[in-house]
Specification:
- The chain is mainly β and 246 residues long.
- Helix content is 2%, strand content 73%.
- The chain contains 1 helix and 17 strands.
- The chain has an 11-stranded parallel β-barrel.
- Strand 13, helix 1 and strand 14 form a beta-alpha-beta unit.
- The longest helix has 5 residues.
- The radius of gyration is 20 Å and the shape is elongated.
- The protein starts with 6 loop residues before the first strand and ends in a 5-residue tail after the last strand.
- The relative contact order is 0.07.
């Protein structure tokens, strides 16, 4: 504990905590936080439920976490299953299990090595990783670099550099984790970026400066202002060269 005004709290077995400010909060069994909390660290190793807003420097979910309110954290790592009813503002988000957010997400850095779902927009400086996601709104980041291991969808995608790749054909333990997803494809209405490289993608419109459309893509319209490179097995119905923005 670094702040003497903040008590560390640990639940082993069944228990609950009232709202308040804490140091380290750890739930090893089944615990409930009855209200808003402000903690240095919040770790769930069993089953944890918060009934209010959670503010913490770091949140770790190794079991199952249900957050019935907004989450604000410097860092959040989900190794198990977690759901956030409202939105989330997070410095660094690492999803190795499953995370579902009812609202949108704003973050500096997002690493996906599992499955991420949002009920709104997802905005970050970078979104990288390998896994699957469902973004019902806009996925917007300076850099988006993803390997698609399952069904991935976003209504719109925007960024300075967007790279979407299919997994390699090699046998690896990571590949085996995602064998239950038969579909490995990104689907979006619109994808727009300065530099765009796509594989296994279905989109209505891809727009940008330099665009490469790779294998197993089905694109209705490509609009580019710099270079356009179609690779083998790419299906593009219409291509337009447009004037660069002034």
């Amino acid at each position: 504990m670094t702040d003497p005004a903040r008590a560390d709290m640990k639940i082993n077995g069944d228990g609950s905590l009232p709202s308040g400010k804490y140091g380290a909060v750890t739930i090893n069994g089944a615990g409930t936080v009855n209200g808003d909390i402000d903690a240095i660290t919040f770790k769930i190793n069993g089953t944890g439920t918060s009934q209010g807003r959670v503010v913490a420097q770091s949140i770790t979910v190794n079991g199952s976490g249900t957050f019935n309110g907004e989450v604000q954290a410097g860092e959040m790592t989900v190794n198990g299953d977690a759901s956030v009813r409202d939105g989330a503002g997070i410095g660094r988000l690492v999803v190795k299990g499953n995370l579902s957010v009812g609202g949108g997400i704003a973050a500096h850095q997002i690493e996906i090595k599992g499955f991420l779902k949002t009920g709104g927009d997802c905005e970050a400086e970078s979104v990288t990783g390998e896994g699957a996601f469902t973004i019902t709104g806009l996925l917007n980041a300076g850099v988006i670099d993803l390997k698609v291991y399952g069904p991935c969808s976003a209504k719109e995608m925007g960024g300075e550099r967007i790279v979407v790749r299919q997994p390699g054909s090699g046998f690896s333990s990571f590949t085996q984790i995602f064998t239950f997803w038969a579909e490995k494809r990104l689907t979006a209405d619109t994808i727009e970026g300065d530099d765009v490289w796509l594989e296994i993608t279905t989109a209505k419109t891809v727009r940008g400066r330099n665009i490469t459309v790779g294998s197993n893509c089905v694109i209705d319209l490509v609009e580019y202002s710099g270079t356009y490179t179609p690779l083998a097995n790419a299906q593009v119905k219409e291509v337009r060269q447009i004037a660069p923005e002034g």
